[in-house]
Amino acid sequence: MLDRVPDVVFKTRVRDESVPGPNPFRWQDLSTQDIFGGKRVVLFSLPGAFTPTCSTSHLPRYEELYEEIKSLGVDAVICLSVNDAFVMFQWGKQQNAQNVFLLPDGNGEFTRKMGMLVDKSNLGFGMRSWRYSMVVNDGAIEKMFIEPGYGDNAPSDPFEVSDADTMLAYLKSVQS
Predict the structure, then answer these.
(1) pTM value?
(2) At CA 106, angle to CA 159 and CA 171, rounded to 5?
(3) Whether 156 contacts 68, CB under 8 Å
(4) What is the pLDDT of residues 59-102, one digit of tens each?
(5) Measuring CA to CA, which residue among 27, 28, 31, 57 is closest to residue 44?
(6) C-alpha atoms less than 13 angstroms from C-alpha of 98 in its C-beta half-sphere
């Protein structure tokens, strides 16, 4: 088990009104330090944008509990997936995600270095993230919730401990 999140550079897209044309976005690299440095962050990772559990339960519930999670000493709530920035942007629009930051791990580098990259070729997904959540405090992993049954081509996609309610209960327990 890792003590700290790995150092990687995420390839993200940010809105920039100085970019002409119908697509006013530019590439922006975000490092692990940019995202986690000096902050307490809740990150949850899921197999893929637009997939059923991720779209109907995982992301929406974190979005719903966002303010309550933040009130417990959390600076940011991040959803990570092994998808590119374009897919994550369109998924965020479709989900009407206003608060949770959707972080693309397009190459799966962060996920691989976390030890959470799994083969989901049995579903035609290729390499994806196993479902998990964690609290990261200035780069140090404070607590991790990893779904049971981790492994390549797992017969199921458990969703029992990486959910927003489990995270909220943990945050409340360490607050008191």
Answers:
(1) 0.94
(2) 40
(3) no
(4) 999 999 999 999 999 999 999 999 999 999 999 999 999 999 99
(5) 57
(6) 4
Tokens of 171: 């945050």
- The stretches of the chain forming alpha helices (DSSP H) are 32-36, 52-53, 59-64, 66-70, 85-95, 109-113, 164-175
Query: Looking at residue 15, what is its pLDDT?
Result: 86
Q: State mean pLDDT over 12-17.
A: 89
Tokens of 111: 């996920």
Catalytic-residue membership of 79: no
Catalytic residue (choose from 41, 54, 114, 171): 54
Give me the amino acid identity at 61.
R
Q: What is the DSSP letter of 148?
A: T
14: amino acid identity, one letter: V
Q: Length of the chain, please?
A: 176
Q: What is the DSSP string of 5-46?
A: PPP-EEEEEEE-TTS-SS--EEEEEEEHHHHHTT-EEEEEEE
How do beta strands 76-81 and 101-104 pair? Answer: parallel
